[in-house]
C-alpha cells in the first residue's frame, strides 16, 4: 500500500460516500485512478466494506468499557459467549492486568447492569471492572 492508497483510505474514512470525482480532485488524480485503486483495495481485502457511522450517543445512550480478568484457558470460549450478546460492540484482547476489554452499549443503566451480571457469571471470569463512558472527545 503506497501513500496514495493511504490518502484514499483516509478520505474514505472521513466520508465513504464521497464521489469518485470529489476524491480525484482532493487527491490530485483522475477518476479512473481512484476507481481502480478502490477496486484493487477491495480485491486485496484491505477494504472489506463501507458503512454508516452513527454518533455513539444516538446509538447507545449508555456506553461502558468492561475489563475482564480470566482464569485458566477459557478466553476463546468467553469471547464466543460475549460475541452472542447484542450489547457487546467490540471485544479487545490486551496485555497487562486485564485479559479482555469489552465495549458495551445499551439504552439504560438497568440494561447495562443486567448484562454486567450476566457476563460476570461466565465460567472462567475471575474479575472485572467497568467504567462508564461519559463523553467522546474524538472519534475516528
Describe what this molecule looks like in 3D.
The protein is 42% helix and 22% strand. The protein has 140 residues and is of the alpha+beta class. Helix 2 (20-27) packs across helix 3 (31-44). The model has no long low-confidence stretch (mean pLDDT 91).
In short:
One of its GO terms (cellular component) is cytosol. This protein is α+β, with helices and mostly antiparallel strands and 140 residues long.
Q: In what range is the share of β-strand residues? A: 15-25%
Helix and strand sequence: HHHHEHEEHE
Which consecutive residue ranges, at least 5 long each, have pLDDT under 50?
none
Total helices: the number is: 6
Spatially, the strands of the biggest sheet line up as: 2-3-1-4
What's the alpha carbon Rg, rounded to whole Å?
A: 20 Å
Largest sheet: 4 strands, antiparallel
The amount of helix comes to: 40-55%
Count of DSSP E strands?
A: 4
Shape: elongated
Please state the structural category: alpha+beta
- Report how far apart the termini are: 20 Å
What is the mean predicted local confidence, pLDDT? Answer: 91
Keywords: DNA-binding, Transcription, Transcription regulation
Protein name: Lrp/AsnC family transcriptional regulator
Domain HTH asnC-type: 1-71
Pfam family, one: HTH_AsnC-type
Layout of helices and strands:
Layout: H1 3-14, H2 20-27, H3 31-44, H4 56-59, E1 62-70, H5 75-83, E2 88-93, E3 100-106, H6 109-120, E4 125-133
Antiparallel strand pairs: 1-3, 1-4, 2-3
Helix pairs in contact: 2-3
Task: Give descriptors for this structure.
sequence-specific DNA binding, alpha+beta, DNA-binding, 6 helices, single chain, 4 strands, 140 residues
Amino acid at each position: 500500500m503506497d501513500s496514495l492508497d493511504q490518502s484514499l483510505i483516509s478520505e474514505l474514512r472521513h466520508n465513504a460516500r464521497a464521489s469518485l470525482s470529489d476524491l480525484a480532485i482532493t487527491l490530485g488524480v483522475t477518476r479512473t485512478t481512484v476507481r481502480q485503486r478502490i477496486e484493487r483495495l477491495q480485491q486485496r481485502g484491505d477494504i472489506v466494506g463501507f458503512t454508516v457511522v452513527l454518533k455513539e450517543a444516538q446509538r447507545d445512550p449508555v456506553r461502558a468499557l468492561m475489563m475482564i480478568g480470566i482464569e485458566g484457558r477459557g478466553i476463546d470460549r468467553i469471547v464466543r459467549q460475549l460475541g452472542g450478546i447484542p450489547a457487546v460492540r467490540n471485544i479487545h484482547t490486551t496485555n497487562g492486568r486485564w485479559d479482555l476489554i469489552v465495549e458495551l452499549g445499551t439504552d439504560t443503566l438497568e440494561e447495562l447492569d443486567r448484562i454486567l451480571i450476566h457476563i460476570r457469571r461466565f465460567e472462567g471470569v475471575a474479575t472485572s471492572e467497568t467504567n462508564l463512558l461519559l463523553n467522546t472527545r474524538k472519534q475516528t
